[in-house]
Amino acid sequence: MKAPHFWYARPGWQALALRPLEALWRVGAKRRQARGRGEAVGVPVICVGNLTVGGTGKSPTVIALIERLQARNLTPHILSRGYGGTQTGPIRVTQDMTADEVGDEPLMLDAFAPVWVARDRVAGARAACAAGADALILDDGFQDPALIKDISILVVDTQTGFGNGRVLPAGPLREPVAEGLSRADVMLAIGAGTLPDTRGVPVARGEILPLQTGMPWQGMRVIAFAGIGRPEKVFATLSELGVDLIASHAFGDHEPYSKTVLNRLLHEAQGENARLVTTEKDIARLPDWFRPHVMPLPVRLSLTDAKAVDDALDALFS
Questions:
Q1: Per the UniProt record, which residue ranges are transmembrane (predicted)?
Q2: Which of 2, 4, 305, 316 is nearest to 158 (CA)?
Q3: pLDDT tier, 208 (very low <50, low <70, confident <90, very high otherwise)
């Protein structure tokens, strides 16, 4: 889905009209958290999540945490629900699987650490532990109370913050801000924008930057496409790299690419003598026949102030 414009504007008539449904969502979110404290599985669980729907930088955060845990000689595994995939799991992701089966993010993250897809988070955690995990990263599990979390990292895009401050469907929030912040151990603010209300939660800061691969982007004729939470961030990054951005096409987050759409993109690129560029997450959703025609734009999280994250990891693993 694409986020409605009014989610990130001052609350207007649309948000007001949706308040009865927002009230129901709030009740459901509160009941979910009241189910219990969750289960322990014998290894530390680090949760990466957010309060809003859409992209805030969770996947780059997971990659950065994997690198920090591996530097401590740990063997972390990633737990995912496999959004967009058909597999219910628990199943370990392999590169011969498709995004239709396990989702695009698990396929992308599998390059960095073992990934388990499981709708039942507890069953997935136990399978990962049996396979040798001594630390678990729970991807997008902040609102899921099934597992006891040792560290909960709340990722916030400072450009959009908490939107209009309303809960779904009147706004982008999955739950009220105060309730979410009460369970957070660290807020990771991504971007140079103004921090939203932190309610005393320790803050780390970072930026999503293109990976330095030596690719000569300057002056390259590019047609970009992306189906992520905020595709415009990809297009802005390419422009900052100095490409000649001929066209940009935004698709819905996790949206499958039909053969018709891919052929249209290919013909457009050929007609403009341009290169097709997309994200690593989008690459995972593309069929094998199309991938040779596309260049990925890899990005990574640069932690400009990592103290809050490192302090939490030190306290957990010391």
A1: none
A2: 305
A3: very high
